[in-house]
From TrEMBL:
Protein name: Endonuclease III
Gene: nth
Cofactor requirement: [4Fe-4S] cluster
UniProt organism field: Paenibacillus swuensis
E.C. number(s) listed in UniProt: 4.2.99.18
NCBIfam families: nth
């Protein structure tokens, strides 16, 4: 895909979702990190329902390690993989207190060393909490990027991220990340994409296949 085509994709999605943003509710970098950790294999909607009570009960790292692991597990039991996530949260909080004075580190390389924090989570945190341009590739971003030929079908998540970083202007990385998520979540869905009304249908390999089958 050439620069003109990439620009067309970015501008079109931007027009469709001008107000795209992080839908995980949070008030500080610490809450955002916990929310993103919880969101793995879980919808933002479910995470927000759980954190509405969770963030009222637990304000800082000390609060999470002051309770038994079983209590924290019960507080997040509606979340997928809740037992493993509860353990990671407590371990993460201990490290924050031991090494970072209870604060979330700003550096990407330090974030990915925290329990339960992978590359995607770190990208979300640095971009949304610290205004550092980044593209986090979740299931929506990966699906849309491959359908629109911004990446190849067999590309890994890391390869998709690198290709997007190369094609998208750096100052637009974070905004593009949010817009691709909204586009994938509300329009170009995994099972029932709205191909028939999609302005990007001419550029979409998947969409053209689907339309031929109708």
């Amino acid at each position: 895909m050439n620069r003109t085509q990439v620009r067309h994709v970015l501008d079109t999605i931007g027009t469709m979702f001008p107000d795209a943003h992080c839908e995980l509710r949070h008030e500080n970098p610490f809450e955002l990190t916990i929310a993103v950790l919880l969101s793995a294999q879980c919808t933002d909607e479910t995470v927000n329902k759980v954190t509405a009570d969770l963030f009222h009960k637990y304000k800082k790292p000390e609060d999470y390690i002051a309770v038994p692991l079983e209590e924290l597990e019960m507080d997040i039991r509606r979340i997928g993989l809740f037992r493993n996530k509860a353990k990671n949260i407590q371990q993460l909080c201990r490290i924050l207190l031991e090494r970072y004075n209870g604060e979330i580190p700003r550096e990407h390389e330090r974030l990915v060393e925290l329990p339960g924090v992978g590359r995607k989570t770190a990208n979300v945190v640095v971009s949304n909490a610290f205004d550092e341009p980044a593209i986090a590739v979740d299931t929506h971003v990966e699906r849309v990027s491959k359908r629109l030929a911004l990446a190849n079908w067999k590309d890994s998540v890391l390869e998709v991220e690198r290709k997007l970083m190369k094609q998208v202007p750096r100052e637009e990385w974070t905004l593009t990340h949010h817009r691709l998520i909204f586009f994938g979540r509300y329009h170009c869905k995994a099972q029932n994409p709205q191909c028939e009304i999609c302005p990007l249908l001419p550029m979409c390999r998947e969409g053209q296949k689907r339309m031929k089958k109708r």
